[in-house]
TrEMBL record, chain A:
Keyword Calcium: no
Species in which this protein is naturally found: Equus asinus
Keyword Ion transport: yes
Biased composition (Basic residues): 678-690
Gene Ontology biological process terms from the UniProt entry: regulation of intracellular pH; sodium ion import across plasma membrane
Location in or out of the cell: Apical cell membrane; Early endosome membrane; Recycling endosome membrane
Polar residues bias (residue ranges): 743-753
Biased composition annotated in UniProt, kind: Pro residues: 788-801
Record lineage: Eukaryota, Metazoa, Chordata, Craniata, Vertebrata
InterPro entries to which the protein is assigned, alphabetical: Cation/H_exchanger_CPA1, Cation/H_exchanger_TM, Na/H_exchanger_3/5, NaH_exchanger, Reg_factor_effector_dom_sf
Record-annotated Cation/H+ exchanger transmembrane domain positions: 60-460
Protein name, UniProt field: Sodium/hydrogen exchanger
């Protein structure tokens, strides 16, 4: 990356390329040096002018292209970790350069590494840190990071010294302190290397977070140990006093806590700044990077732990930043961060390889190198086992043998160690070159060899544990069910410890921090969504039950088939027929795939077997995964997989609907005589609704809204536990709500389109993107558009009890969330019929929504009230309490229907 | 922490509860805290809604079934002892003293059979001691994605029942269920992975300290400044 000996000509290879490309005539006046050149030159060649940035850019390009190359072959990357490939590539490139040049022009210098390459990686780690998991395991992580690192450093250093004393290493100009210094820099597990490898090895989340967290947090220890021993070496062994040792220990606390503090302060600043960036959206993402980077530099300036600072800056700010900045900015931040981190990582590994090609730094001492390798592995294993033994007495989630093996084996060393060792002063540490070459060997060994073998090792260990055999259907189903049960029980019993503290923190956060750091709109909508949802459901249910009661046909509520209805069909909400049919096709394709497989196998299997297989296949593919399995962890290279969100969404829909159902049935007995009034009107609306079903008129609008809304709720549904990895998605919800609120507050229903885009959000991007206009367009013209064939006595749809029909439909449509029972009964029934028809029918059923909404109901009055208050830019406290909550929720769905015609008409 | 003992005294009928459920005092205490935390209005019992507030349950396909299992026989509230009793099913089964146990005593809640029974009841909605095809279908429907068609589901349910059904009554009885699990070992899975559950309260004072420092950043500031002063 940086150059030693700036010798452009050596770059035969690149120069050729450069000449080929770069001789594009540029009509540019160029001042010439001296009088050697006469007149104006059309083209000049100014290599030295651009040399440094050009080479840097080229290197980055080479690294990135190499990455593309690696991934061309999936087979290679699935076996060999990318980091190893990059190192090898670096070695090769370094060899080429050296062969051409006979000088190592490019090495990874500590400055570049610490100032430009490391910060993005660590910031990325912090910003995407699964907070809850991290803090849940903080004790363990700290123990490994602090005690473990000290242990590694001390034992490695001392053992090497012992061997040295025995004379096995021959004659070296080295003292005890040098060994300890070496031990301290080689002891630390490297966050870059660990992540690069662990990301590909799929270990459980706890194990992952422990190793990952350890690698991040042990930086403080490394820095302190390194500084302490370096200064001791400088002082000379005899001059070290007890006071110095005490100071060293104190400095550990100062460095680590100070670094953390700096990070927290900057996170605070950052959150505060992003709170006010409403009008400068375009540079919003910049703040995140600049301020985080400042935290890094500041703590570096104060000689505190810079890694800790930027990590905690990321960890602490993520929640508020994500809540504050706009949807697009959030996306930008995410992608930029991933890009920077991934790029930096690529460059680091490649330059590690390149740096190794330099005969000047190589000094070989077999005993020393080999013993270092042995000691770091052995002592790491011993340390892990000892610490785990202690920890397991206190941990609720035990670390098993297999975990310990992976942890010991996963102790990869990386660029941090290398950069530190290069930083050593040759005058003070006589054997610097030996240390450097040993470090390089260690890094290469751990990254390449261990990185290569850890995956098979994990697999092998796992396979050993449970022998493979084709599971039976029951087993599959029940096994999955048990997983779900367990995770539910864990949630109920508050599995992850110290809830007390967490609750306190949540309180503190809600009372003070969020107030200061979050936009008002964001904080308002942030919590209690679920509560509100229930409240709304309650109201809804009451009126609903009253309605059913009035009609005297309540059987449907109690009927056992409620469950069927509950689980109906969430895929129905579609923006249009087109999409519906597309998805229909897709779905068909899915099953077609199954069938293909089936036919492939058919020759060999009896029909019965085939059926079995298909069933297994289906189950395997579509069973919901238990939480632990799919909650994805931090990954440097990938952004959130949408699959999981989808699953969450689906389940959430179901759950909510079901709860509403059961709620209704629970309320059934209680509210007998409510709302006897308005009978007639409702009945009429009812009829109309029924009638419109077979019409098959496609509504085009609301379903999607409905969909989005629900999903936002889902994301927000867990105010207490969410601020972690889910916070990322949360931001979407918050933003969404924020925008809606804003929208409402300014009473510009069709107003700022700007807020619409974030509103429709990220989770169903393709559909969502085109949503707002679509929704609005058809809805503006008025009820007629959606409710074309109103009271005509069209024959009732195939569904029997009319009452039954009312139930579900209400909510899916115009009423949006408020009528939480969003799916349509019609949909459910039809579903069992021809699928193609279903799409149309449900759509038709939905279209009746607006019609229903037209019926004056309690909602309308509420709506009016809301509208009346809308103009107020500020809500009184009281209002917020009594009205705000329902409103918050209310607002959510209202985007869908408040713009719609029926409501308009009412007003 | 001094609050420990005082809190402990708050748990009603603690001793007998401990004996019955096999929880340690620390676990009970922790559960009690949890119970209190879930109990939003401090009413002394949990309503269905309190449990439904737990966000993670909303995305758990079986979440509501499990909530229901806390409210047997249509009761609307669950008090602390009942709450603990349900959770006790998920304590790791203590195999070692299985032989030593007094046969007259009722089987402990966390025994294998009781665990299975608990799971079984999640399936068995109408409490007739059998998982009918219909009930199986309902569970299935909860647990698979929307992509699977009704027909497929039905056939899967059919098959699943058939697979376990030995006496040919078209439903899975508890014995059949247990046997099936015995064979497959997924029952074991339920037991084993429950080791996770409820071992003890994290006593790591160190951890608590760290987190309180994290919480009370004022203190953190003070420490840092003092450290600076010492250094300088």
């Amino acid at each position: 990356m940086s150059r030693r000996g700036a010798r452009g000509p050596g770059w035969g290879l690149l120069l050729a390329l450069l000449l080929a490309l770069g001789v594009v005539p540029r009509a540019r006046g160029v001042e010439e040096q001296g009088g050697t050149v006469q007149g104006f030159q059309v083209v000049t060649f100014k290599w030295h002018h651009v040399q440094d940035p050009y080479i840097i850019a080229l290197w980055i390009l080479v690294a990135s292209v190499a990455k593309i190359g690696f991934h061309l072959s999936h087979k290679v990357t699935s076996v060999v970790p990318e980091s190893a490939l990059l190192i090898v590539l670096g070695l090769v490139l370094g060899g080429i350069v050296w062969a051409a040049d006979h000088i190592a022009s490019f090495t990874l210098t500590p400055t570049v590494f610490f100032f430009y390459l490391l910060p993005p990686i660590v910031l990325d780690a912090g910003y995407f840190m699964p907070n809850r998991l991290f803090f849940g395991n903080l004790g363990t992580i700290l123990l490994y990071a602090v005690i473990g690192t000290v242990w590694n450093a001390a034992t490695t250093g001392l053992s090497l010294y012992g061997v040295f004393l025995s004379g096995l290493m021959g004659d070296l100009n080295i003292g005890l302190l040098d060994f300890l210094l070496f031990g301290s820099l080689i002891a630390a597990v490297d966050p870059v290397a660990v992540l690069a490898v662990f990301e590909e090895v799929h270990v459980n989340e706890v194990l992952f977070i422990i190793v990952f967290g350890e690698s991040l947090l042990n930086d403080a220890v490394t820095v302190v140990l390194y500084n302490v021993f370096e200064s001791f070496v400088t002082l000379g062994g005899d001059n070290v006093t007890g006071v110095d040792c005490v100071k060293g220990i104190v400095s550990f606390f100062v460095v680590s806590l100070g670094g953390t503090l700096v990070g927290v302060i900057f996170a605070f600043l950052l959150s505060l700044v992003t709170r006010f960036t409403k009008h400068v959206r375009i540079i919003e993402p910049g703040f995140v990077f600049v301020i985080s980077y400042l935290s890094y530099l500041t703590s570096e300036m104060l000689s505190l732990s810079a890694i800790l600072a930027i990590t905690f800056c990321g960890i602490c700010c993520q929640k508020y930043v994500k809540a504050n900045i706009s949807e697009q900015s959030a996306t930008t931040v995410r992608y930029t961060m991933k890009m920077l981190a991934s790029g930096a990582e690529t460059i680091i590994f490649m330059f590690l390889g390149i740096s190794a090609v330099d005969p000047l730094i190589w000094k070989w001492n077999t005993a020393f190198v080999l013993l270092t390798l042995v000691f770091i592995s052995v002592y790491r294993a011993i340390g892990v086992v000892l610490q785990t033994w202690v920890l397991n007495r206190y941990r609720m989630v035990q670390l098993e043998i297999i975990d310990q093996v992976v942890m010991s084996y996963g102790g990869l060393r990386g660029a941090v160690a290398y950069a530190l060792v290069v930083l050593l002063d040759e005058r003070k540490v006589k054997e610097k070159n030996l240390f450097v070459s040993t470090t390089i060997i260690v890094v290469f060994f751990t990254v390449i060899f261990q990185g290569l073998t850890i995956k098979p090792l994990v697999q092998w260990l796992k396979v050993k544990k449970s022998e493979h055999r084709e599971p039976k259907l029951n087993e599959k189903l029940h096994g999955r069910a048990f997983d779900h049960i367990l995770s539910a029980i864990e949630d109920i019993s508050g599995q992850i410890g110290h809830n007390y503290l967490r609750d306190k923190w949540t309180n503190f956060d809600r009372k003070f921090l969020s107030k200061i750091l979050m936009r008002r709109s964001a904080q308002k909508s942030r919590d209690r969504i679920l509560n509100v949802f229930h409240e709304l459901n309650l109201k809804d249910a009451i009126s609903y039950v009253a309605e059913g009661e009035r009609r005297g046909s309540l059987a449907f509520i109690r009927s056992p088939s409620t469950d069927n209805m509950v689980n109906v069909d969430f895929s129905t909400p579609r923006p249009s027929t087109v999409e519906a049919s597309v998805s229909y096709l897709l779905r068909e394709n899915v099953s077609a795939v199954c069938l293909d497989m089936q036919s492939l196998e058919q020759r060999r299997r009896s029909i019965r077997d085939t059926e079995d297989m298909v069933t297994h296949h289906t189950l395997q593919q579509y069973l919901y995964k238990p939480r632990q399995e799919y909650k994805h962890l931090y990954s440097r290279h990938e952004l959130t997989p949408s699959e999981d969100e989808k699953q969450d969404k689906e389940i959430f829909h179901r759950t909510m609907r079901k709860r509403l159902e059961s709620f209704k049935s629970a309320k059934l007995g209680i509210n007998q005589n409510k709302k006897a009034a308005k009978l007639y009107k409702r009945e009429r609306a009812q009829k109309r609704r029924n009638s419109s079903i077979p019409n098959g008129k496609l509504p085009m609008e609301n379903p999607l809204h409905n969909f989005i809304i629900k999903e936002k709720d889902l994301e927000l549904s867990d105010p207490e536990e969410a601020p972690d990895y889910e916070a990322e998605e949360m931001s979407g919800g918050i933003e969404f709500l924020a925008n809606v609120t804003q929208d409402t507050a300014t009473d510009s229903p069709s107003g700022d389109t700007g807020s619409d885009a974030p509103l429709t959000g990220r989770s169903s991007p393709p559909a969502a993107a085109e949503k707002p206009p679509a929704a609005r367009a058809p809805s503006q013209p008025g009820p007629a558009a959606c409710d074309p064939a109103p009271p005509t006595p069209v024959p009732a749809p195939p569904t029997p009890a009319p009452a039954r029909q009312t139930t579900p439909r209400t909510l899916s449509r115009g009423r949006g969330l408020r009528r939480g029972r969003g799916w349509s009964a019609a949909g459910c029934r039809v579903r069992t019929r021809v699928r193609r028809r279903r799409a149309v029918c449900t759509a038709g059923a939905r279209s009746s929504g607006p019609a229903r909404a037209a019926a004056p109901r309690c909602s309308s009055s509420r709506l009016c009230r809301r509208r009346a208050t809308r103009r107020r830019t500020r809500w009184s406290r009281r209002r917020r309490r009594c009205d705000g909550c329902p409103r918050a929720l209310h607002v959510v769905p209202s985007t869908a229907w408040s713009r719609g015609p029926p409501v308009r008409g009412l007003e | 922490m001094g609050s420990r003992s005082s809190h402990a005294a708050l748990i009603p009928d603690e001793d007998s509860l401990r004996r019955e459920t096999g929880f340690s005092q620390a676990s009970l205490l922790r559960l009690y805290h949890r119970f209190r935390a879930l109990d939003t209005n401090k009413k002394g019992y949990l309503s269905r809604m309190d449990l439904q507030q737990i966000g993670a349950l909303a995305v758990n396909p079986l979440g509501d079934r499990i909530i229901d299992s806390f409210f047997p026989d249509g009761s609307l509230q669950v008090d602390f002892p009942d709450f603990v009793r349900v959770l006790a099913h998920f304590r790791p089964a203590d195999d070692e003293d299985a032989g030593l146990r007094d046969p007259r005593e009722p089987e402990p809640l966390n025994s294998r059979m009781n665990k299975l029974r608990f799971a079984f009841q999640l399936y068995d909605l109408d409490r007739d001691g059998k998982i009918s095809r219909h009930e199986m279908l309902q569970v299935l429907r909860l647990m698979v994605g929307v992509q699977v068609t009704e027909e497929q589901l039905e056939s899967i349910a059919e098959r699943t029942v058939q697979e376990a059904d030995e006496d040919g009554d078209g439903a899975v009885s508890f014995l059949e269920f247990a046997k099936e699990e015995e064979e497959n070992g997924s029952g074991r899975q339920l037991v084993v992975s429950t080791t996770v559950c409820l071992k003890t309260q994290l006593p790591g004072r160190f951890l608590v300290m760290v987190i309180s420092v994290w919480n009370y950043w004022k203190l953190l500031g003070i420490i840092t400044t003092t450290a600076f002063i010492i250094l300088l």
